[in-house]
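worker-03 picked up job from queue 'complexes'. Input manifest follows; two sequence lines, order preserved.
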Amino acid sequence: MFARCVAQFKPACFLFLWLTLITGVAYPVLLTGLGAGLFPAQARGSLLEKDGSVIGSALIGQPFAAPGYFTGRPSATAPEPYNALASSGSNLAASNPALREVVEQRSAALNETRAGAAVPMDLVTASGSGLDPHISPAAAVWQIERVAAARGLPAETVTALIARHTEERLWGFWGERRVGVLGLNLALDAATGQR
Amino acid sequence: MIVTDWLQWLFFLAVLLAASWPLGLYMARVYMGRPCGLDRLGGALERLLYRRSGVDAGREMDWKTYGLAVMGINLIGIVAVWAVALLQGVLPLNPLALPGVDPFVAINTAVSFATNTNWQAYSGEATLSIFTQMLALTVQNFLSAATGMAVAAALIRGLARRETTQLGNFWQDLTRSVLYILLPLSLVLALVLVWQGVPQTFDAVIEAHLLEQPAATAPAPDGTTAAAPTGRQTLVLGPVASQVAIKQLGTNGGGYYNTNSAHPFENPTPLTNFLEMLAILLIPAAFCHTFGAMIGDRRQGLAVLAAMTILFAGFSYLTLAAESVPNPALAGIGVAAGPSLEGKEVRFGPAGSALWAAVTTAASNGSVNAMHDSFMPLGGLWPMLLMQLGEVVFGGVGSGLYGMLVFAMVAVFVAGLMVGRTPEYCGKKIEPFETKMAALVILIPPFLCLMGTALAVVAGPADAVSNPGPHGFSQVLYAFSSMGNNNGSAFAGLTASSPFWTLTGAVAMFVSRYWLILPVLALAGSLAGKKRLPQGPGTLPTHGPIFMFLLIVVVLVVGALTFVPALALGPVAEHLALFRAN
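worker-03 finished. Artifact:
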């Protein structure tokens, strides 16, 4: 038994080191090279720039509070919402009374801006990552009135912007229809000539 | 369930079955040492590795030597990950200047990644440097997957060969699994992921100035999310795509980020969601065809695949159905009716999240694209039961097949008891030794799950659980079901970073991996030594519908008998209370 252990010890150590070099160094480095060559923007995080400074990533949601912006989904990251250093969901159970409480608060607050209409589910529930960049088309449409009034834009203009920023399901059935909030808000700024 | 839910479910199953066929036959060529195409490209590298490492690839091993080799490289892996995690503060590629990982969390993480569990007691972006992610975790993603695949190949050889003690050469099986199967698939998948937006860079930290600056301090319309007071967002990048690709293909599941594949950088589009799900089940499903091809009877592999597929189709359907039911607790408070989106991402929706939950728990993957903790009670129950069945419904790469083959031996044993004959599987007599080893493989994981849960409830830290009522118990049960079956997913509200959880978890993960691998190898050695019996009139054909039915029943009955009482206290009680109260 001891002799067998000794005989396998050398291959175990050396193969471990060699496979570490192949899978832990060569593989990611090769892929980084390929990514930088073929898809440079995506490989660097799909960053968006405005006036020369990075304003975020097209894939990562941001907090919006002003009435002239579309708001994204509630975020459960700590210590502040949309903290990209600590992605997190709320992990509140469906049966947890705290879930109903916080959803009710959010729903009531949103209803102050538009009384009477039931709030779309995605505007009152926290996303899984806390960084969800999208809302549903219904959630965007729900906010048109408020955004158009705050911006002094006709509702049709805002509706058209939403349509342009709506991504369809893949192959017609895979995934969900969605609106990228950051892109939509940038387009709003452009439409009103705001910085 | 709406029409698109059905379409997504059916489409996924169809593509999975279609893709597993050619890959399985290709993998059989790899393990039988036949030309597979890629060996022309990588043959020189393979031989160089053997020469430099002192491997005599032509020399086969008996089960004890094979087991020693498995344990050797796995123990080295555990020590290496632990050391790198502790020392990352003084190692390079640490742009956030993160300190060394807490030693208990580091032990847990080391065992977790070596055992193919990838339980996350850490939070990726906030705890681990690029060096640790690449040289410790990505490497273990490959090696732990290849270990499982090699052990499965050895068990298949035990069934295919006769009157020999030799099961193949572990170093060769390990190296070939990495070079010819895992690495090429990972490269292709990772490249598609980068195209779709998954970062792959060494520029790790980007400071962004948010579009809306906090100067505009209007009250938040939803009342809870105030504007970020800093007006900034720190984006953590890194070599993400390379790790995400192998974490799915190797059924590892440990994310680059805390929220795993719910994070838009790990899983940015519906297309990546589809490909990552496919990658999770691809190799485990293909292994059934590999098995059939290697023992020279394709129908045997198809029977096992059919049993797995039927079980998976059932459980994934139940999960989808459970998640399409609106949460009654959210009714009557001015919210539009519909399935809950708490913990889910808009781009995946309830269906994409529920299907993923079934996929990741059927395989011993454990990556998540939604927070299972916030699922409906029954939406959490089915994934939990999928883990508790022993990770044999596709299961982990390699480990799913060897687990299911052990269940097949139990099934022929049960059938033999019913008709009073010696049970046989693939022409091999199943005798007391085989039955004992099979019993170990089947009983150890449930023992760990239930004992771990009991211990945590009695002696664990009281503040670990984050939700009240039966769901709190579900969080504990889910955690040990996950660690005791090398899955790695979690009801993530549980605080698992205390020494109690990291240490008991490490023990559960270690035992449920290696105390299964060693009996499986012993079983393989014993089977290899037997004669192959010709089929007689009393032989139960193990490729027909009767056997498939029997196999499914055995898997379900063993799982149900063991776990129904515990499940009744957790998700079932929660479901009843939730729908009664509202």
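worker-03 released lock.
Residues 129 and 146 of chain A are 27 Å apart (CA to CA).
Chain A touches chain B through 120 residues (CB under 8 Å).
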